[in-house]
Write a structure and sequence with these properties.
Number of domains of chain B: 2
CATH topology of the largest domain in chain A: MetI-like fold
Mean pLDDT of chain B: 85
CATH class of the largest domain in chain A: Mainly Alpha
Helix content of chain B: over 70%
Number of domains of chain A: 2
Oligomer: heterodimer
Order of helices and strands of chain B: HHHHHHHHHHHHHHHH
Distance between the termini of chain B: 58 Å
CATH class of the largest domain in chain B: Mainly Alpha
Low-confidence stretches of chain B: none
Number of strands of chain A: 3
Largest sheet of chain B: none
Largest sheet of chain A: 3 strands, antiparallel
Radius of gyration of chain B: 31 Å
Order of helices and strands of chain A: HEHHHHHEHHEHHHHHHHHHH
CATH architecture of the largest domain in chain B: Orthogonal Bundle
Chain lengths: 423, 458
């Protein structure tokens, strides 16, 4: 009997220990998902912050440039023909190559190499007639080879870089004519169909504009609504209805807001498609309930003694609210707003529906110019087949996550630094 | 034009604020003020801006449709359909604005002239009416200021109305959602029978596309069956919950009952990071890493796995949902009164027995509520499915094949240029409204369950 009891106890203690382990395993799994995820993104994406250049020599031959004037003006340089000069700069890497094979060399640099040749001369007009070294953006495939993302030992026909190009690449690499530098153009250039030229400037500006529009529309309305509901609303069926409405609105899937934006903002109000203005308004409808809920919570946290003191001094209800309650609730409201905006920042589906998925290769200057946004850019790039876009997507994700972390930190700081502790 | 008008109104409001305050100081020299001087300013400014802006907004909302009716009156005798009339109106407008490139007929030209004329009349009428209103309301307000009426109350009542109108914003959004969805969905159900949509088993909207014409009704019957999408949605949500419920619930229990303060302080926010990652990032992860991984494992076991499997999308979605369940169930379990635990320990139960037999049953309603909220999240999730689980609507229960969901199909249909009036576009709104109804239903139940649970222990 005693033995039986001891066995039972042992069993129960084992069950206890097992249960604890289940919990630990569950938490471990959740954390390891996060770790794997972050590792994947970082290991794929960090190389996108490096840009590969091919260094070669260019001869700014006046005859080839078709410049007749003795001392050519800026306009002459602007309108000169750079095709041959640029072409020669590349083919000079291997003078022995038969002419019909030249394409193989040209393919090693980005298709905009002619512009790069032109820009160098426009910047340094005294190079005219001289032979100078020039950095050209390597093509996406060479870039990937240089970063070691391309296996070199598979059969030639399965590779996008053929044996001849690899040979040239190796030769250049040995000479030190392949440069790797920090990829500034990733941050300064707009989207492009070519992975080596694509940057996030257009989508970044699109994001900034949509978030600003979103803030401008949702913050005032949400704060005013929260003040009414928390401080002035009589308890009746209608205000109950508004409250239920807000709570449910907070849980409506984001894509439904996209349909709303499409069906109302675009179809009825005829606002311009694909613009951060429409995107921002759509997002603001989504963040509205989030901010209302946060603002109400922080209004509720202001102790009644504050209100009573103000009322006792003869302030009206409106004065009490506007002069005392609302300013004291602002830190909580603001941090809730930032968190709501961070959520809106990551939204993709509603923006796709209102057309912010269009290919935009200019940097938008106002909220009514067509633009993409960072999450949509991630979607667009991840749908492209080119190998070079994988690292771009990962890098774009890193920028987006950095943005989100900053916003959440800001929310924390606002909350901890300015919030009064009532106790 | 509109911008100038609004700027004018706003500037006038600011001026009248200063004017009102100054006036109050003048009054002060002869008699006692009824409120602080700034309220005199607010009073004037509110009377100046509010009526004029309200009329301005109403006018801007209704003007286009009124002008349209006038223009299209000339075409009523031609027996045109609604779409054709819309087309004509677009042409007239383009012609009037000078960016029309098609054939110009005399009739169209006349309409365009009429349009310009009407617009001109409307504009001058608008300016005149708003100026009249400004003069009228300002003079009314100025008279009250001169009489030194009570100034604070009306200003505060006005402010209260502003607050009230703002709180209607949320209701307006809901109404907007319902109407925009219903409007298009009803037109969709005029073309496709409701029961063909709800019970049909083939979803293939692309085949109804006919250039410039009405699609064959026989085709329509077979193209918009939403059953595969409903099934796919719930199937993927089910896979997600299979991942999220055990992990989320167990970590929630561990965090609330076992973990020390240090672990809790760091583990909880770190797990919540999972909820803050944008879904498009999860989608990329699912498509690029998890999908091929699942495929490789399946192939190694001799199974045929599609690269875009429901399993990959569902599993990643499950990871995304873990923090919802863990945080909510953590809160719910923490809310269970301590005396229930103490009673159980006093009877000699171990901690896990207490959790399983006392706390879990007590917290069950709250946990069910949090799971329902998580299901509604999973049902409404879009980007993961779009990127990781294919776009072909297969009616399948095999997690290794690709399926599609309501949300993914909405994106597929509406990406790129849409043509309103096309049943394919409208079908997205029909899908949208079914999604809205399902999630609303889940939320209402979940919120009421959680609310009742809270009341029980407070």
């Amino acid at each position: 009997m005693n033995n039986f009891k001891q066995n039972l106890l042992k069993k129960r203690y084992n069950a206890e220990r097992r249960f604890q382990w289940y919990g630990k395993i569950a938490i471990g799994l959740a954390l390891s998902f996060l770790a794997v995820f972050m590792f994947q993104i970082f290991s794929k994406g960090y190389s996108a912050f490096q840009k590969t250049w091919i260094v070669t020599e260019v001869h700014y031959d006046k005859e080839l440039l078709l410049i007749d004037a003795e001392s050519p003006s800026k306009d002459d340089l602007e309108n000169a023909d750079y095709y041959d000069v640029a072409y020669k700069a590349m083919t000079s890497l291997d003078p022995g190559l038969p002419e019909e094979e030249d394409r193989q060399l040209i393919q090693m640099v980005s298709y905009k190499y002619e512009t790069e040749v032109k820009d160098l001369l426009l910047k340094n007009p005294d190079y005219l007639g001289k032979i100078v070294p020039i950095k050209l953006t390597a093509s996406d495939d060479v870039d990937q080879v240089h970063k070691g993302n391309y296996p070199r030992d598979i059969p030639e026909k399965n590779r996008r870089v053929n044996d001849y190009q690899l040979q040239i690449y190796d030769m250049l690499n040995e000479r030190g004519d392949i440069l790797s530098e920090f990829n500034i153009s990733f941050f300064t250039s707009p989207d492009s169909r070519e992975a080596e030229l694509a940057g996030i400037a257009s989508s970044f500006m699109g994001t900034v504009f949509s978030i600003l529009v979103c803030l401008a529309f949702s913050f005032p309305v949400a704060v005013l609504a929260a003040i009414y509901l928390e401080e002035f609303a009589p308890k009746n069926k209608f205000t109950d209805f508004i409250e239920v409405n807000i709570n449910n609105l907070a849980a409506v899937p984001s894509i439904v807001f996209g349909l709303l934006g499409l069906g109302v903002l675009l179809a009825v109000f005829n606002l311009p498609r694909s613009t951060p203005l429409v995107g921002g308004i759509t997002l603001s409808l989504m963040t509205l309930p989030t901010i209302i809920i946060a603002a109400r919570a922080s209004l509720k946290a202001v102790p009644p003694s504050i209100r009573e003191a103000a009322l006792a001094m003869g302030a009206s209800n409106m004065q009490t609210t506007m002069h005392h309650t609302v300013p004291l609730s602002m830190p909580g409201t603001l941090s809730g707003t930032i968190i709501g905006l961070a959520q809106a920042l990551g939204e993709t589906a509603p923006l796709i529906l209102i057309g912010m998925v269009a290919f935009v290769n200019t940097i938008p200057g106002t909220p009514v110019d067509p633009a993409a946004s960072l999450p949509v850019q991630i979607y667009i790039w991840s749908e492209s087949a080119e190998r070079g876009f994988v690292e771009k997507v990962s890098a774009c994700i890193m920028v987006l996550l950095a943005f989100l972390i900053l916003m959440n930190l800001a929310a924390q700081i606002v909350r901890h630094k300015f919030e009064k502790k009532w106790s | 034009m509109n911008l100038i008008l609004v700027t004018f109104i706003v500037l006038l409001a600011f001026t009248s604020y200063y004017f009102g305050r100054k006036k109050a100081l003048v009054i002060q020299s002869s008699q006692r003020l009824t409120a602080l001087p700034k309220f005199y300013g607010y009073y004037l400014a509110a009377w100046c801006a509010a009526p004029a802006l309200i009329i301005f907004i109403l006018w801007s909302v209704f003007e286009p449709s009124i002008v349209k009716t006038f223009i299209l009156q000339d075409y009523t005798d031609q027996n045109l359909t609604k779409n054709e009339l819309q087309l004509i109106y677009t042409k007239v407008k383009a012609l009037a604005l000078g960016n029309y490139t098609g054939n110009i007929t005399n009739f169209l030209d006349a309409s365009a002239d009429k349009y310009i004329q009407l617009k001109g009349i409307a504009n001058s009428a608008k300016v005149a009416i708003i100026l009249a209103i400004l003069i009228f309301s300002l003079s009314y307000a100025y008279r009250s200021v001169q009489k030194n009426d009570r100034m604070r109350e009306p200003v505060e009542i006005f402010l209260k109305w502003v607050l009230f109108v703002a709180s209607l914003g949320a209701v307006l959004v809901t109404i907007g959602i319902i109407f925009s969805l219903l409007f298009e969905a009803i037109r969709f159900f005029q073309a496709v029978k409701f029961f063909d949509f709800i019970f049909g088993t083939h979803w293939y909207p692309a085949k109804t596309f006919v250039r410039d014409g009405q699609p064959d009704p026989e085709l329509m019957k077979d193209a918009f069956g939403a059953v595969p999408l409903f099934a796919g949605t719930f199937f993927i949500a089910f896979i997600a919950m299979c991942v999220a419920i055990p992990i989320g619930l167990l970590s929630g229990i561990y965090l609330s009952e076992y973990a020390g303060r240090g672990v809790r302080k760091y583990a909880k926010p770190i797990i919540e990071i999972l909820a803050g990652i944008p879904t498009v990032v999860y989608g990329f992860f699912a498509a690029l890493t998890v999908g091929p991984f699942v495929k490789e494992i399946g192939n190694a076991m001799g199974l045929e796995v599609s690269a875009e499997s429901a399993l990959a999308a569902g599993a990643v979605m499950g990871v995304m949902i873990i923090p919802f369940i863990s945080s909510l169930s953590d809160d719910v379990i923490t809310a269970v009164p301590q005396n229930l635990r103490d009673g159980s320990y006093a009877m000699g139960a171990t901690k896990s027995e207490t959790v399983k037999k006392v706390i879990f049953p007590a917290a069950l309603p709250g946990i069910v509520g949090s799971i329902l909220l998580a299901v509604s999240r999973a049902v409404g999730e879009t980007m993961i499915v779009v990127m990781a689980s294919g776009l072909a609507a297969n009616l399948t229960m095999n997690p290794l094949e690709s399926t599609s969901t309501i949300t993914a199909q909405i994106v597929v249909i509406l990406i790129g240029d849409q043509q309103f009036g096309d049943p394919k576009t409208q079908s997205a709104f029909a899908l949208g409204i079914s999604l809205f109804i399902v999630t609303l239903f889940l939320n209402v139940i979940a919120l009421s369950v959680v609310k009742r649970y809270r009341e029980k222990y407070e």
